[in-house]
Amino acid sequence: MEVTAAPPPMRMTTSGYTQTVTRVQNAGGDDNKSRVVQTFYDTIVYTSSGGIKTLTTSSQINYLI
Question: Quick one: CA dihedral 12, 43, 57, 49, positive or negative?
């Protein structure tokens, strides 16, 4: 019985990017303030077991100016 060597494991590769979406709206009231809402989207694209996978997370901050 002949035993053959296993192929080398696949090297995992990753790539990521971040996108920021900023929205400004009137907060109302007599003080004439604006509400700023920033949403951050982080996406990672990677290979796993011969296929392409993605992972997306988001976070948000908001404040008055």
Answer: negative
